[in-house]
Amino acid sequence: MLWHRICPPIARRPGLVLAALAGWLLVVATACGAGAPAPEPTTDNVPSPPANSAVEPDPVAAAEGVPGGGAEDRPVRVVFLGDSLTAGLSLEESQAFPALVGDALRRDGLDVEVVNAGVSGDTSAGGLRRLDWLLRQKPDLMVVELGANDGLRGLPVSETEANLRSILERIHAAGSEVLLLGMQIPSNYGPEYTERFAAVFPQLAKELHVELMPFLLDGVALDPDLNLSDGIHPNPAGHRKIADHLLPFVEPMVRSLAEQKAAVSETAIESKSASGT
Known about the structure:
Layout: H1 2-6, H2 8-11, H3 14-31, H4 59-64, E1 76-82, H5 84-87, H6 97-107, E2 112-118, H7 124-135, E3 141-145, H8 148-152, H9 157-173, E4 177-181, H10 191-208, E5 211-213, H11 236-275
Parallel strand pairs: 1-2, 1-3, 3-4, 4-5
């Protein structure tokens, strides 16, 4: 288990491990908004959904309906769909790992737009409910970080699996690439539940041919130097470490998408030149 590898001094004292993880579970379930309705996402790049979104014009679609406004002419749009870990609880959005990954991609010369659609307290069911609106923003890549709150609340693993499956399938059906971020939980609900929960992520990645980061919090979970005073939400240093670990998974996907956009744009220019327009 990665939990023991993350915190070896505690792992040598089993009694402390049980107490620490039990406390961690209780704090997370409270801090992440268990039982409370999740607010709508707020991001720098995407406005909140309009009250009557069925009749409001979609600015992205409108832009792509005019010459020079196609998807190939804008930056690679990466949407991070998640909970408080993605949102960066108690931090500025610029300190959360989605923004840090975006900064690193730009330093590497990639034209990218990052949307943080993390909502504290969100579950896989909540993410599924928000998905249609997010897909209307025409993401090129969606990074999915959901399920932790399901596991911490002891929700049926079958429900989490079904919700995540629907999310991944609908993202693919919309023509976007997807990266799934794996999660693990303490064994407070017993080893069988813990193992079944952890197995959902690699199982879905394999079945649906989705890229997978095995464990988002590897090297960060339970480290007091990398978490806030609640002991479970990463602090700025923790988010920097997450971003460093996540970048090798995201960058090749973004680079490939950027190359595809460039090729489509070049083909369009050549077609226009050949037709004399």
